[in-house]
Design goal:
heterodimer, A: about 400 residues, alpha+beta, 6-stranded mixed barrel, two-stranded antiparallel ribbon, 12 strands, about 50% helix, about 20% strand, elongated, B: about 230 residues, alpha/beta, Rossmann fold, 6-stranded mixed β-sheet, about 35% helix, ATP hydrolysis activity (chain B), ABC_transporter-like_ATP-bd (chain B), ATP binding (chain B), P-loop_NTPase (chain B), ATP-binding (chain B)
């Protein structure tokens, strides 16, 4: 192909595009809508999955979770270990916890519940309990007779029609905890928390020191130590640095501690892949049909150009260029609108039962969707124009 | 000395629908000299347009041969036929067949543009030929902004801009009123007389045919008379 052929090709494509403004706008709008329909839904599902995981990380697991060896109940010398880990550059927070269970009682209601013993200030660095208090206040180190209670245990925060046994309590009311060793103590509700994660909002939280009081343990023990890192994806290198400290306990990354959430998020991702693939195929077909009709309508024009001596490759190239322009413009506009939507929803997240959800658009999905739609437009432009360009000139001009 | 610019030998065009064969052209052998203005006439369905399509390389005959300016144009590649149409032939259609997205001047210069000429050159060529057909003040109008007669004159300008060896016209006045028709035929006459343009025109109007140097009559796909 000569450079001059390219000039004629660009000229014909440009004239067709600029003269047929309504066609251009309609096709570009369809392309942009197709882009949005695929990416927006997928980004909500991805955001939902991310929020589920984040809820677990910020409530249950941290990015890394140190746990006792399988034949041990506790991590020993936990205070020193926390100090050592905190010295690793980049670590955002380290907090130790103790787990127990107790029967909680208020008036006539008794519920068996997990009880979490935390160090309130350290805990702020690894979890969101402190800023999830929806009534009352967060615990302080001095609170020896106070507890936090999860909203899932409080009747006034239950969904309408929910029949699960809950306490009819509010901040200031008292709850009695009876532990497995027979220790019983009455605590005042200092705050009610709600993170939005049903796996987290069913706990009773008391001060770390209470564990020694209740169980009489004097050793420096912890059930687990949570570590918060600057962001996800850095778990591997930090695990190695913690091992280098001589830690013999299990160091688990958050992904391995997700349990049912992993299955749920995995199911969401599969659903997302299926709907994404169907969406892409539908968009591909829609774009193909629209561009196909557009090019087929230009069959006569293609015949005329051939009749006056314009090379088939130039004609074909001009239509593929037009289709490519539709594709790229549509994808760019779709990207811009999507970015604006993401920006808007990052300021005003979607309120879902699990909490606020911010849609997430991965680079991979963005690239796949953009590339597929541009490919669809090229294919849709190529085949009908090739068919018309290969056609007998008289059939193309006069129909036949 | 007269020079043969078109020569056909036993030209045949058959359309086959299943087992049924329709002979649109049968055994047509003609010669046209350089600088001649030839009218091809005949009734509807006689095969006159089919003959023009074969001569203008818009279609391929089933049998026979066509020699244009000494070149065998049947046994050449499609790429060569395209090159031939661009450089050596011009075509005027009955229904103008302009590209609606291009202005008059763009419709005219798209073919010299494809010949690798510079912008100034092909724009000048287009302006000159549009001026010659009387459309100097309509160059930047789109086809939809022009009358039928004006569109046909743009079509003639497009056919002539590359200074083709032969200009083919397929019932160029069929969609025009009598005044515009006369303008078109006068233009053909002018280009034929002034620059010796070879013109082969299909028409069913006897008075238009009589303005040509020669009339070739076609009947039922056969050469009827040639005078």
């Amino acid at each position: 192909m000569q450079s001059n052929d390219l000039k004629v090709m660009l000229f014909l494509a440009y004239k067709n595009l600029t003269k047929s403004k309504i066609t251009f706008m309609v096709i570009v709008a369809v392309m942009a809508m197709s882009f949005l329909s695929i990416t927006f839904f997928a980004s909500i599902i991805d955001g939902l999955g991310y929020e589920f995981e984040e809820g677990m990380i910020r409530g249950q697991t941290g990015h890394l979770m140190i746990e006792p060896q399988e034949d041990e109940l506790y991590i020993s010398d936990s205070a020193d270990l926390v100090k050592d880990i905190r010295r690793i550059p980049g670590v955002v927070g380290v907090a130790r916890r103790l787990d127990a269970s107790a029967v909680a009682r208020h008036e006539t209601i008794e519920i068996g519940n997990p009880v979490l013993f935390i160090e309130p200030e350290n805990e702020k660095d690894v979890s969101d309990y402190w800023n999830s208090v929806i009534a009352g206040e967060y615990l302080s180190k001095r609170d020896t007779d106070e507890l936090l209670i999860g909203a899932n245990l409080v009747k006034s925060y239950a969904e309408e029609g929910d029949t699960q046994k809950r306490f009819d309590v509010e901040v200031g009311d008292r709850i009695t905890l009876s532990f497995s060793n027979g220790f019983v103590k009455e605590y005042r509700i200092k705050g009610i928390y709600k993170t939005g994660s049903r796996f987290v909002d069913d706990k009773i939280i008391v001060n770390f020191e209470q564990y020694q009081l209740i169980f009489g343990s004097t050793d420096d023990i912890a059930s687990n130590i949570l570590i918060a890192l600057p962001q996800r994806g850095m778990e591997g290198p930090y695990t190695e640095q913690i091992i280098d400290l001589g830690v013999s306990e299990q160091i688990n990354q958050w992904q391995t501690k997700m349990g049912a959430v992993n299955q749920f998020v995995g199911s969401l991702q599969i659903t997302n892949q299926i709907t994404g693939t169907i969406g892409l195929l539908t968009a591909f077909a829609t774009i193909y049909i629209i561009i196909f009709i557009n090019v087929t309508n230009k069959r006569k024009q293609i015949g005329i150009l051939k009749a006056v001596g314009i090379k088939k490759q130039i004609i074909l190239g001009s239509y593929v260029l037009q289709s490519l322009t539709y594709g790229i413009t549509g994808v760019i506009i779709g990207n811009i609108v999507m970015k604006l939507l993401l920006l808007l929803l990052s300021i005003h997240p979607l309120n879902m039962p699990i909490g606020p959800v911010i849609p997430i658009l991965t680079t991979e999905r963005l690239m796949t969707t953009s590339a597929t739609l541009i490919l669809a437009s090229i294919v849709a432009g190529f085949f009908p124009s090739k068919k018309a360009a290969d056609e007998n000139i008289l059939d193309a001009i006069f129909g036949g | 000395m007269e020079r043969t610019i078109i020569k056909t030998e036993h030209l045949e065009r058959v359309y086959a629908t299943g087992a049924v064969k329709t002979y649109a052209l049968k055994d047509i052998s003609i010669e046209i000299e350089e600088g001649e203005f030839v009218a091809i006439m005949g009734k509807s369905g006689s095969g006159k347009s089919t003959l023009l399509h074969q001569l203008g390389l818009l279609d391929k005959p089933t049998k026979g041969n066509i020699i244009i300016d000494g070149n065998d144009v049947i046994n050449i590649s499609e790429k060569e036929r395209t090159r031939f149409r661009l450089h050596e032939l011009g075509y005027v259609f009955q229904s103008y067949n302009l590209i609606p997205e291009l202005t008059a001047i763009e419709n005219v210069y798209v073919t010299p543009m494809a010949r690798n000429l510079k912008k100034e050159e092909y724009e000048k060529m287009a302006e000159e030929v549009l001026t010659a057909v009387g459309l100097k003040d309509r160059m930047y109008h789109y086809p939809s902004e022009l009358s039928g007669g004006q569109q046909q004159r743009v079509s003639i300008a497009r056919a002539l801009v590359n200074k083709p060896k032969i200009l083919f016209a397929d019932e160029p006045t069929a969609n025009l009123d009598s005044a515009s028709s006369e303008d078109v035929i006068n233009l053909f006459r002018k280009f034929n007389k002034e620059i010796g343009q070879t013109i082969v025109m299909v028409t069913h109007e006897k008075d238009e045919g009589e303005k040509a140097d020669r009339i070739i009559w076609v009947k039922d796909g056969l050469l009827d008379t040639d005078k």
